[in-house]
TrEMBL record:
Organism: Hibiscus syriacus (Rose of Sharon)
Organism domain of life: Eukaryota
Catalytic activity: gibberellin A1 + 2-oxoglutarate + O2 = gibberellin A8 + succinate + CO2
Keyword line: Dioxygenase, Iron, Metal-binding, Oxidoreductase
Name this polypeptide is given: gibberellin 2beta-dioxygenase
UniProt-listed GO biological process terms: gibberellin metabolic process
MF terms (GO), sorted A to Z: gibberellin 2-beta-dioxygenase activity; metal ion binding
E.C. no: 1.14.11.13
Matching InterPro entries: DIOX_N, IPNS-like_FE2OG_OXY, IPNS-like_sf, Iron_ascorbate_oxido_reductase, Oxoglu/Fe-dep_dioxygenase_dom
Transmembrane segments: none
Length: 336
């Protein structure tokens, strides 16, 4: 434990002391297999989109759509975000998390990030199976824009990173909309930098096998993830959990709940989680392509699998379910 680490053991000592919360049994609600196979996600070279060869461009787009349909996750290389930007972003992220714990959880602004953006553990957990051994800053992009005049290395690095991955997210969303035969301008018209979020994650070393992040689906349109080489990301494929092999050259993309609903189940938002490492800390940064709270999500084809709902309504329902049941129910709540 460092003075920058959250007081996990002290705060959640009743969970660790509860014999019914065995640290060797962290199976989520959907019955986790004990054996997890290592797999490589579909790897897509986006430089093909800039070629003069129209046939090769279409093949690239088709691979993106197929991965989103069959996996819900894929990785991309030659994505337009330089190694320098990624490294500077990671360096600033590490500095933020190495601050004393007291500073990170202050009620006023910390590092020009809105109060309440910092979180750790799982306040609603009633067992270790509902507990996440991690800490995070959930940063609205409006915070970064409003702090631009301060010209700190943190603000500059985050803004450079977010601008690049935001452009990538929009490009991929348009391609996925196009390949499903529907309005590719929907995401430009409803998702802006000001409505999106960046989540900076740290997973401290954990002496017992626990979730760094509980099994869940993302509630956005699309997520762009930059992770280090420690590993720990797992997802469900064909009913089984698989461990994702890290790739130093790639950014990882996954479909969120809103895209699954909008595409009428053409693209899949799949459960994923992070498992802890006993000796090494892990860092990642996730950019969430989100609409405004007032945006109405309607299935783009008929018959609709889901009823129409606003992003605000969806977020509220998720928060209520987590509070009442300890886990997210998600899209099944909104089926026709």
């Amino acid at each position: 434990m460092m003075d920058s680490d959250p007081p996990f053991h002290e705060t959640y000592k009743t969970l660790f002391a509860d014999k019914g919360s065995s640290t060797t049994d962290i199976s989520p609600k959907n019955d986790r297999n004990t054996t997890v196979e290592d797999r490589e996600l579909p790897l897509i070279d986006l430089s093909r989109l800039a070629l003069d060869d129209e046939l090769e461009k279409e093949r690239c787009k088709e691979e993106i759509a197929r991965a989103a349909n069959e996996w819900g996750f894929f990785q991309v290389i030659n994505h337009g975000t330089s190694r320098d930007i990624l490294d500077k972003m990671r360096e600033e992220q590490v500095k933020v998390f190495k601050q004393p714990f007291y500073n990170k959880c202050r009620e006023d602004k910390f590092m020009n990030i809105s109060a309440g953006s910092y979180s750790w553990g799982t306040p609603t957990a009633t067992s270790l199976g509902q507990f996440s051994w991690s800490e995070a800053f959930h940063v609205p992009m409006t915070d970064i824009s409003s702090s631009r005049s301060l010209n700190t290395t943190f603000t500059t690095s985050v803004e450079q990173y977010a601008t690049k991955v935001a452009s990538l997210a929009q490009k991929l969303a348009e391609i996925l909309a196009e390949k499903s035969g529907h309005n590719s301008t929907f995401f430009q018209e409803n998702s802006f930098l000001s409505t999106c979020f960046l989540r900076l994650n740290r997973y401290p070393p954990c002496p017992v096998p626990l979730f760094g992040l509980m099994p869940h689906t993302d509630s956005d349109f699309l997520t762009v993830l930059h992770q280090d080489q420690i590993g720990g990301l797992q997802l469900v494929k064909d009913g089984n959990w698989v461990a994702v092999k890290p790739n130093p050259e790639a950014l990882f993309i996954n479909i969120g709940d809103l895209f699954q609903a909008w595409s009428n189940d053409c693209y899949k938002s799949v459960q994923h989680c992070v498992v802890t490492n006993p000796t090494q800390e892990r860092f990642s940064a996730a950019y969430f392509l989100c609409p405004s709270y007032e945006t109405v999500i309607e299935s783009c084809s008929k018959p609709s699998v889901y009823r129409s709902f606003s992003f605000k309504e969806y977020r509220q329902q998720v928060q209520e379910d987590v509070q009442n049941y300890g886990y997210k129910v998600g899209l099944p709540r909104f089926r026709v």
